[in-house]
Amino acid sequence: MINKKILITGGAGFIGSHLSKKLLSKGYNIIIIDNFNEFYNPEIKEENFKSIKEVAKKYCCELTLYRGDIRDTTLINKIFDENLINGVVSLAIMQVRPSIEDPLYYVDVNLLGLTNLLEAAKNHEIKSFVFISSSSVYGNNKKVPFSEKDPVDNPISPYAATKKAGELMCYTYHSLFEMNIACLRYFTVYGPGQRPDLAINKFTRLMLEDEEIPMFGDGTTSRDYTYISDIIDGTIKALDYVMQQNKHIYDIFNLGGSHPISLKELINVIAKTLDKSPRIKQLPMQSGDVDITYSDFSHAKEVLGYEPKVLIDEGIKLFVNWYIKHAK
Ligand SMILES: NC(=O)c1ccc[n+]([C@@H]2O[C@H](COP(=O)([O-])OP(=O)(O)OC[C@H]3O[C@@H](n4cnc5c(N)ncnc54)[C@H](O)[C@@H]3O)[C@@H](O)[C@H]2O)c1
Prior knowledge:
The protein is an alpha/beta fold. Helix content is 42%, strand content 17%. A seven-stranded parallel sheet has the order 3-2-1-4-5-6-11, with helices on both faces. It has a two-stranded parallel sheet with strand order 7-10. The site of nicotinamide-adenine-dinucleotide has 29 residues, from helix 1, strand 2, helix 4 and strand 5.
């Protein structure tokens, strides 16, 4: 029995629920804070939480849920007062596209919320912290694959700017208060339970309903898709890394698959898996969307032993199988 207690913010969401279940199955005790917001159907998050509860029961591990907001300082302090926490994984955040319409809200949740957590962790002498950043910090950098050493001074959405700012805030807490912090730059994550607003989920639904597929741009933009089990594996490796004693760690890791494919190819892979002929409706590119994401994960491989295993054809099959059985 590991007997460590991990606080996961956004634990009822897509990635947070997978992370919670995997950690519980390994013997960790889990605390979740989530506000079940309406960015997408909160019933999906309720279902996610039910499945987390089942895993906690199966492995006889503790699971505690706080329904609330990471910006609520009183609640955050209460969580740290009531629990002996060994590490924090910060996933709760607002997402990409509406950030252009509502940048103030994004700064509020993504930066003030994060600082609220860092502050409580510092005050309660919690030294181990994992912040989930994003490949979007690379903006439209021309050099690929993206390395953690590349400049990231040109984010093209408020969301990306808050992720970069989050990494900087984490560095400040590491430097001032000797916290061990890893910032993980996730590259588009997919798999069972993927958020309904994201392309793979949306295209699968539209193809099954014989609807048109909206394709923003000419289909040549590409993404480095990363299967959920690989992301979770890398995240747990990073968590174990920052929980090491007697080390002074601040590090940034790309967690990607390193096999970018174009939007057109992605549509074809999904269509082939579903045995459909997609009808594509081409639309103008959306502002805030980058041309390409492409990870160089050699640093994560070297330090954490991260090695993604699931390639896109297999991952799409696994996603589609899940979708047909479960999606609402
Ligand atoms: N999904 C991807 O492809 C991807 C790619 C790069 C980075 N990320 C990052 O991974 C993290 C998780 O993403 P996801 O796809 O699982 O998203 P998600 O929306 O499914 O999960 C986020 C969860 O956070 C909760 N939340 C939001 N604001 C909150 C607040 N103020 N207080 C408490 N809870 C709040 C939401 O209710 C939700 O359950 C995010 O930080 C995201 O930026 C995701």
